[in-house]
Amino acid sequence: MSIRRIQPGSIVDIIAPSGPFDVTAFAESVQLLTAMGLVPRYRDDIFARDRYLAGPDARRAEELTTALAAPDSDVLWAARGGYGATRLMPELTSEAIRSAGKLLVGFSDITALHLRWRAAGVPSVHGTMVARLAREPEAVQERLLALLMEGEAAPLAGESWLAGQAEGILAGGNLALLAASCGTPLQPRLHGCVLFIEDIGERPYRLDRMLVQCQQAGLLEGVVGLALGEFTECEEPSGTSSSRQVLAAFARELGLPTVAGLPCGHGAVNLALPMGVRVHLDGTSGRLQPMQNLYADTGPTA
């Protein structure tokens, strides 16, 4: 299937399906989007707050479904992650996502939405949120804009952990959200996929627990390669094991080609990744190469 192409003048529907955000940083980024030639649009109630959520579920669900169905916008871009997107999943259908044919941009808690886009066979973009965009390094802004406008992403270099080659659809996102999907309708089927994961603030034993949960739930069945992003603030100050040791041991157990240390996730540099497109992972040289234009017609979905 084909998706709506983003170009100068495209309307960007900004949504807040998760947590509240910094209003000043948000305003700066809205100005930046305008300077990039896009037309940002958002509802007046996007600034709502309800505990740790950007307003009640009903508000966020209506915002999401209305933006998805809007005939004049080309992309949905999350204002922030945090928590709350999983609460809205019953409101989304694969048919609605396919019918809209729109890209989704975001990461972290927005992984829940990436999984829904994946289930619908529609590509998405793992990239920085609106409320953080203006304060990102220029390299992050430029790569993201180029990916959205041109559909192409340059290869990323990381560390070679396990040698070998793998090709498949890039899927995944935040490890905690993937683990939380296990046993729910949101749990993805990853047969033939290259799995990307990243996280923040999870101690080594918790990373181990979530990886084991994903494995025992069958989420990793059929995965052909591992692409590891940044695991930020995941170390136990007085611990005897590091996040690197946990991840490396798990990669060896799976025996899949693995590239680690990709500059994607919650670190200082969060380079955009096209999700739902075919990639080549070179575990020998430590390289992740998108092989498919984001706007390529992928044919009928499964």
Give an overview in words.
By secondary structure, the protein is of the alpha/beta class. It has 2 domains: 11-150, Murein tetrapeptidase LD-carboxypeptidase, N-terminal domain (Rossmann fold, 3-Layer(aba) Sandwich), CATH 3.40.50.10740; 156-290, 3-Layer(bba) Sandwich (Glucose Oxidase, domain 1). 30% of the residues lie in helices and 23% in strands. The protein contains 9 helices and 14 strands. It has an 8-stranded mixed beta sheet with strand order 6-14-13-8-9-10-11-7. A 6-stranded mixed beta sheet has the order 2-1-3-4-5-12, with helices on both faces. A hairpin with a 4-residue loop joins strand 13 (278-282) and strand 14 (287-290). Helix 7 (175-181) packs parallel to helix 8 and helix 8 packs parallel to helix 9 (243-254). The longest helix has 13 residues, at 23-35. The protein is globular.
Q: Which keywords apply here?
A:
14 strands; Rossmann fold; 30% helix; 302 residues; Glucose Oxidase, domain 1; 9 helices; 6-stranded mixed β-sheet; 8-stranded mixed β-sheet; alpha/beta
Task: Characterize this entry briefly.
With 302 residues, the protein is α/β, with parallel strands linked by helices. Helices cover 30% and strands 23% of the residues. The protein has two domains: 11-150, 3-Layer(aba) Sandwich (Rossmann fold); 156-290, Glucose Oxidase, domain 1 (3-Layer(bba) Sandwich), CATH 3.50.30.
